[in-house]
Amino acid sequence: MSDMKADYHSAVRPWHAFAVGSVLAVAAFYERAQGFRSGRQYVLCHASPALNHLTLTALALVAGAFLAAVVGAATATLRGKPSRTSFLVLCMLAALALVITADSVDAHGEQQAANMAAEPFSEISCDYTPQVYTATPGWFTW
Questions:
Q1: What tens digit of pLDDT does each residue of 34-63 get?
Q2: Which residues pair with 34 in a beta bridge?
Q3: N or C: which end of the chain has fewer CB within 10 A?
Q4: Per-residue pLDDT tens for 104-121?
């Protein structure tokens, strides 16, 4: 009986996956919101659809991390005990992988913004109002 109790307490529970994935996703969203105030800034002559696309992709990846946590915890709760631990660990790893991928996408966007900002300035080719791109400081790629 004590062996069963030890196994029960060592298992990963659905709320673990939810907590890990949620904390990662909320922290990543917060990081991006703070990045608008505290990240490196690049002044660009034009609004860049490519940079907007990369920003939206990174936000979608962070939302996917949260979704992996919620769906993983709910699915594991409904499925019951068999193979639940490995499934929950897989969900937590998926959430982590999505956050790391979002940081990589943000780093790529920052590199593109740096390249665009380094282009020679011409008043004729620039928009009337310059665009400011603020890079998000990433945990894995800064």
A1: 766 667 888 888 878 899 899 899 999 999
A2: none
A3: N
A4: 999 999 999 999 888 887
